[in-house]
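Our example copied in:
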Amino acid sequence: MPDLTNLYGNPTLLAISNANTLGNNTVIAAPGAGKRLLIRSCLVWNAAATPAAIGLRDGGSTITPLVTLAASGVEKFSFPGSEGADEFVALLSENAAFVWNIDTANAGRGIIRYNIVGN
């Protein structure tokens, strides 16, 4: 497990997602052997004209169940244990991508704040 007490040596990065494909969409690529993605915030909005369900994945493993967003709806995801916190944290598996699973094409837009930790 990487030391998460001091992230100053690991710059905070920002990813903008435009996930358009039905099913799994890689939002942040796997960081490489010995490294993990630390997802610190995830704001998702539905760009489709109809409701869409979006779930978050740690590579092939489910982080959150599908959450249905209304047309043009917005969701700030929180992870278990982080409810009410200013930011939530999901430490992904080693060398795993951050993936969104979407049940409607052209629906997923979002902003993700994250760090790469390890080694």
Remarks:
- The chain has one domain: 17-118.
- The chain is about 0% helix and 50% strand.
- Residues 61 and 88 are 18 Å apart (CA to CA).
